[in-house]
Amino acid sequence: MRPAAQPGRVQELLLEVELHRGQMRRALREELRVAIQDGRLVAGTRLPASRRLAADIGVSRGVVTDAYEQLAAEGYLEVNARSAPIVAAVVAPAPARREPPPRTWRFDFDAVSPDASLFPRRAWVRAVERVLRAAPDGALDYADHRGRPELRAALSAYLARVRGVRIDAGRIVVTQGFTQALDLLCSVLLARGATAVAMETPSHAGLWKTVTRSGLELTGCPVDANGLRTDELADVHAAAIVVAPAHQFPTGAVLAPDRRAALLDWAAARGSLIIEDDYDAEFRYDRPAVGAVQGLAPRSVAHVGTASKTLVPAMRLGWISAPPDLVDELREQKSSADSGSPAVDQLAFADLLSSGEYERHIVRARRAYRRRRDMLVRALRWELPGLDVGGAAAGMQLLLRLPDQADDVGIAHAARARGIGVSALSPLHLVPRSQRGLLLGYGRLPEPSIVRAAAALSKVVLERMERR
After folding, report:
1. What is the pTM (predicted TM-score) of this model?
2. Shortest CA distance to 350 belongs to which of 183, 179, 134?
3. Domain 119-359 has CATH 3.40.640.10
4. Which of 25, 50, 113, 374 is deepest in the core (most CB within 10 A)?
């Protein structure tokens, strides 16, 4: 066939179409569509009549006619009676954007990521197979946007036994992780006329955006070695406060008993909501985990948990144990957000909870993280004996505290330049503070590399501190 003609003239087509019985119409349609999309067939070009094209490529005229009619319906061709089709104007696509590969590190101290290799893949596959065999068709249909009743019932029993949460299944709302849970709660508060939410400082900077994007103002309340500074709550005027009593991020502090009581008194006196972030409470290594604050005041606390740290972030499963007066509004917000979380994942997670496999996985993961933490603490104390390694023996990160004059941001940049992924503490403060430090996660540090990782990081820290 001859090359492409000018727009408006009959086009001699060079088509590379694999024609198989039963697939002729689809193959021809797709080849023509792609030729138009990528510009080989320009706007205004007149295509061969259906009879002629059919003869050229050896198919029935009906195959070509059907392809033309479908492309005309999609807007790719203009077809007039007793006239060959003309290629319609199609907006050229934007140039393909080449995505950079994800950054890899020689040593990865990411402070918020678990070890994905610990995910119990076989147990999960078995759970999915069981629930798909047993689930009625209705379980896979649109349903209550609070979440599958099987998961809410399993969570209610698990949270009561493990975290001391007092909740019935009807007051649990399943979410896609903590971020969505916080977003739903902020939306409800905003609709009720709230103007501000308080959060611990330092805290996870990504959650600040969740609050501010909802339309609420964000204010900070400082944290020290005993958790939230409740003595400063008198100056906090907010409809809710986000706290992590069991294991604060990033300091690793555990909220002291007297401060728990003071926090509840503040919430009761002001009618404010406590949003309890219980994201990794199952991972306590030196003693049993401290129970959830929600168990002390179920009407004042929205307890939020997730499987992002205990399983993997890709699960996107979280939950809100909500006060009674928030449930209906949260369900409406969840319905507007995404019409409910994936049902099959919920059913499989409920199966893991009910069978005990989830808790057995927690025990295995806890042992692995405890070994890593102990190794990292020993290595840092050997390499940097003059610096404090802070935070409770819990979770999957610790805090290397630096002198107030240290440039923790500069140290983090220098470490990254040497292939060491680490984050600084100072940018995580909502209010100006002199605290400096490095967040050191061990979720992505295999045991054999921990000593070498600590030595490499320590070298950077010492070099940068000597310059000041």
Report:
1. 0.88
2. 134
3. yes
4. 50
